[in-house]
Amino acid sequence: MFEDRTAAAIRLAEQLKAYQGQNPLILAIPRGAVPMSRIIANKLEGELDVVLVRKLRAPENPEFAIGAVDENGQVYLAGHAARSGATREYIATEKATQLELLHERRIRYTPARPAIDPHDRIVIVVDDGLATGSTMIAALHAVRLQQPRKLICAVPVAPAKTLADITPFADEVICLETPAIFYSVGQFYHLFPQINDDEVIAALEASS
């Protein structure tokens, strides 16, 4: 159990201290991971940016991810996507909806600069926890195409099965807790408030 995202970020930074002073690029999956990633970037003397991905929602259950899409339009579909009732037409429509939101977020989050290039960098992709792992897989896949020197996934909590699913997409996976009973990420935090866009923008501006 973590007190809050700050406590989780401090513990993650300790596990990542081998990369301190190597100018790692810390890429946060918005929104909850952005304040965490600012702490990690500061402690590791690295740079902070966001990697923009959105989950693709199941047709009858918008809280359940059947995959994810990155801001370049690349789609990752989970193995259970076909069983969810999602047709090819549904996925195309859902992809277009989420891409529009991703483009709006990029304009809001980093209006004065392009995304930081991860090529030949040590890149650490951070989220505040994983459930299905679809969003993290899409993020790792998107970053991998840009040829980082090393690609690391860092999260406070995730089910063991999800970690097994994402391991092929990263060079290293760091996870602090792998509970046997897992319902949602929020159950492992005493305080787990929603993070809004203003907080994301403030964290990014403070680290620029």
Task: Characterise this structure.
The protein is α/β, with parallel strands linked by helices and 208 residues long. The chain has a single domain (5-53, 109-206), classed as Rossmann fold. 35% of the residues lie in helices and 22% in strands. The strands form two sheets. A five-stranded parallel sheet has the order 2-1-6-7-8, sandwiched between helices. Helix 1 runs parallel beside helix 2. The longest helix has 22 residues, at 88-109. The protein is globular. The two termini are 31 Å apart. The model has no long low-confidence stretch (mean pLDDT 94). Residues 7-190 form the Phosphoribosyltransferase domain. One of its GO terms (molecular function) is glycosyltransferase activity. Pfam families: Pribosyltran.
Outline of the structure:
By secondary structure, this protein is α/β, with parallel strands linked by helices. The chain has a single domain, classed as Rossmann fold, CATH 3.40.50. It has helices at residues 5-15, 33-44, 88-109, 134-144, 160-166, 197-206; strands at residues 25-28, 47-50, 53-58, 61-70, 75-77, 122-126, 150-157, 172-177.
Keywords:
208 residues; alpha/beta; five-stranded parallel β-sheet; three-stranded antiparallel β-sheet; 6 helices; 35% helix; globular
Task: Report low-confidence residues grouped into runs of 5 or more.
Answer: none
CATH class: Alpha Beta
Name of the CATH architecture: 3-Layer(aba) Sandwich
Gross geometry: globular
Number of domains: 1
What's the CATH topology name? Rossmann fold
- The DSSP helix count reads 6
Helix/strand order, N-terminal first: HEHEEEEHEHEHEH
Q: Helix/strand-derived class?
A: alpha/beta
Helix content: 25-40%
Query: Any idea what the radius of gyration is?
Result: 16 Å
- On the 0 to 100 scale, the average pLDDT is 94
Most strands sheet: 5 strands, parallel
Strand fraction band?
15-25%
Q: What separation lies between the terminal Cα atoms?
A: 31 Å
Count of individual beta strands: 8
